[in-house]
Each structure stands twice: as structure tokens, then as C-alpha cells.
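Data availability (excerpt). The following record was deposited with the supplementary files.
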Amino acid sequence: MSTDPNAATGTRDWEAVQAEPDFQELRRRLRSFVFPVTGLFLGWYLLYVLLATYAPAFMGTPVLGNINVGLIFGLLQFVSTFAITAWYVRFADKRYDPLAAKVRAHIEGEK
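Predicted structure:
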């Protein structure tokens, strides 16, 4: 009979898993990407909103025919969203997913 209380229920000591160096590195890698990029994007979006609110003459400046600065900034919001998504996918494929697979294999190997 096992003396481990988690063995009978099939549960795991998740605090021990979280304390492991690989798991800590996994969290550090994710946070070092997600928080700065989110901050930059929110700053870029806030700039767009503030310019639209407080500088309508600038945002209405024609650039090419009926296309103005505001329209270009609005379209760049979509472009930046897709660019950040592609950047994250590349980041995850190279730096996050391999370590996540290692941590997962370690956890599943303990069952």
C-alpha cells in the first residue's frame, strides 16, 4: 500500500509541479512575451483612440484622395493584430511549445 495520499485518488501535487525549474522557465518565457507585447498593443490602440478624440483635424488629414490619416491608422490596427498573432505563433513554435511538451511529458510520466 502506498503512503502517498495522492496515489489513491490519482491527483497530483500541482504545487510541486509549479515549483519545478522547467515549469518556472515556461511561465517566465510566456510572461516575458505576452505582457510587453500586450502593453505595446494597448498603447498603440490608446494612441489611436486619443488622436481620434483630441486631434480630429490631424486624423482627417487627406493622404491620398478620400483616404485620410484616421483610416490608415484604423487599418493599421488590423495589420498590427495579425502581425502580433503571427509573431506569437512563431514565438510559441520556437521557444514555448518545446518546453511545454517537455513539462507535459514529465507530468504525464509521473502518473
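Summary of structural features: The longest strand covers residues 62-64.
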